[in-house]
Amino acid sequence: MNDADKDAKARNREIAQNEAERQTVGDIRVSGWAIAAAVIIGLAAIGWVLIHNS
What we know:
- Helices cover 93% and strands 0% of the residues.
- It has one domain.
- The model has no long low-confidence stretch (mean pLDDT 91).
- It has 54 residues and is an all-alpha fold.
């Protein structure tokens, strides 16, 4: 393996690592929105039950 191949492999590893980090950040962002939506829907359902239960 020559130096150019080693450099290309190192560069590809770095690109893959950066892409994995971006994917993780995106997944966390989507999960945060999903949790927020679930909490809002849950609170709305509880409020609806409390209003109509009286």
